[in-house]
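User: Can you fold this complex?
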Amino acid sequence: MNKMFIVLKHEFRQKIRSKAFIILTFIAPLLMAALIAVPIFISVMNEGIDKQIVIIDGTGKLGKYFAADTGKRTILQSPGNANSSNKSFGPSLHLTVINSETSNTADSLKALLLKKKISGYVEIPVDAITDSTSVATLRVTNANDFTVEEFLSTHYRDALFSERLKTSGIDPDFVKHARQGAEFSTLKVSEEKETKDNGVGFIAGYITGMFLYISMILYGTLIMQSVIEEKNSRVIELLSSSVKPIDILIGKVLGVGLSGLVQVSVWATMFAAVSFFALPAVLSSLGSSAGSIISPSSFVYFVLYFIFGYLMYATLYAGAGATVEQASDAQQVSMPITLLVILPIVMMTSVIQSPSSTSSVILSLIPFFSPILMLGRIFSETPPFWQIALSFVLMAATFFGVLWLSGKIYRTGILMYGKKYTLREIFKWLKYS
Amino acid sequence: MSVVSLRSVSKTYGTYKAVNDVSIEVPAGCIFGLLGPNGAGKTSTIRMITGITLPDSGEISLFGEPQRPDHQNMTGYMPEERGLYRKLTVRNQLEYLGALKGLDKVSLKKNIDYWLDRFEIQNWAKKKTNELSKGMQQKLQFIVTVLHDPQLLVLDEPLSGLDPINSEIINDIILEERNKGRSIMLSTHRMEQVEQLCDEIALMNLGKVVLSGKLREVKERSGKKMVRIVYSGSDNLMNRLEHYPIRIAESHPNELLFEMKAGADPKQILRTALDSVDIIKWELVEPPLKEIFLDAVAATN
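Assistant: Here's the predicted assembly.
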């Protein structure tokens, strides 16, 4: 036991002092932040750009809907929201409406477009209001700017709708009024309160699931590499003349695990700092308060599932590592374990969508799936406490089972050299004393 | 008292009997040689003594008591396949492996400094192990073995891969440890090292002990009569002696070592030799261990 702690301390120190660890701990969050920040930055940069769009209005009636005064307008603002004070980013559109039906205009506009004098032009057919099969066409050189297309098509549809109502003698304002107040809201009900969810629980479940998935594979692989390295450098024989193999195994798993906890804590602190300033704004824009999703209890569950998941998977990876000599063979033996981590990710969507279905309950209770699936359920619809408790009991039992299995494989595997062992041979090791 | 005592110890891997009913006694304060060809079961035996594996049957006693895990702290082990952490510095390596042998911080520092001094590698203490030369790594490996001042040293092929100078250093330290009252068990292929160092030997073949005892007694028991002739002259002496009931063991330029078989008359052989060459030296020698080794292995195969 005492020596187990020496191994633990050594592994922990080696890990947190390594360059890779330091880089990953501090660079990874920066990369993540960059991933979020760069698109925002780019759209801010684009703000000053004007896009010239010419609308050839064949009907002569629709143009006024695009712009009361045919001038500059900011896109990324839905027509219904036009009066909202929300600041929006992105390029601005400069609209010019021409009431003409000659093909000459179109030809000269095409020439202008190809010379990049304008960004695009829309042709609205003469019979657009009467003919329900007519099609308005936007011509652009870059068909990938969906914001422009979205803005124009939405306005076009609204304009067409209003004009057609007028033709039928119906007041468009009356219809507009009739359509208002049709907001539909979803409330997430729990014993204590009702909260607006808007899919934030789904997103939170998915993000934590992905995080667990990545960290299980990351730390598991780290452990496996460290086992293989000791075997490959033959230092393991020396070690096992000082320490019981099972103590090496446990010390290694706990030491690397502790370094992982340090890493996650650093990330959590960074995340908390960021969310304190930035997240409330983001979440409130989604119509939900930060507190309702990232409650202290769900954070505690997250840490607990991380620890239990780590213990199970890291121990499995360590056992697998003992069966090979070369780092290059690691991939092959770790495949089945990696598959165990991938499976719950694949099932996650259906489990989060119907968290209380029998299949979801059963799947989330399978110990190897619990960290990702039960946590996902906790975020979307808190399951009965007995199910959460049972998942921990099952995971603890599985951990000890895995420890027994990996311990046996490890003890024999670390001294086996010279060939690749088949699964059948490895199972025979379990019988060795 | 026996430092190491194996009684009817067996170890099987799958269907392969690596160690078969082996009994060995290593007296305290002696250098014990465990000999045998490759695959004889030496390393399997040593791994059980060092507590790396457990015997399937039989009993192992260390220091007069049934084997316990904490005996590992009193044993220093040098595996045949040398192994060190490649990326650890010399000092970190010694600190970690020493701590695992139960050394506290103070004795760790003291012992590390002593041994780095002794091998004159203090300047390398902060270097990573994979930056050291092969010979330097061997020295480091040896320091790891003796760092915690163990009562029992178990050395599997201690001299393999060492140049003559480093071999000499290691040999000297082995003798020095013995003189301090430590016990040393070593396995080796090098018969001259055994003759030079070992007080007692056990010879293993095919998982069994086929010969054991004090080196001198083993030689006497073999009953071999060996003669060494040193001569001058270009005549091919070997051909002239061929028809006598002898077996040539070694033949070098101007030197011949042969075994006298039953019915060989030394006077006649000497006379024949004198007729053809000038004899510088004619001596009855005790059989080299190599001869006994080869005989015993051949007899059991």
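Chain B has a mean pLDDT of 88. Residues 164-179 of chain B form the longest helix (16 residues).
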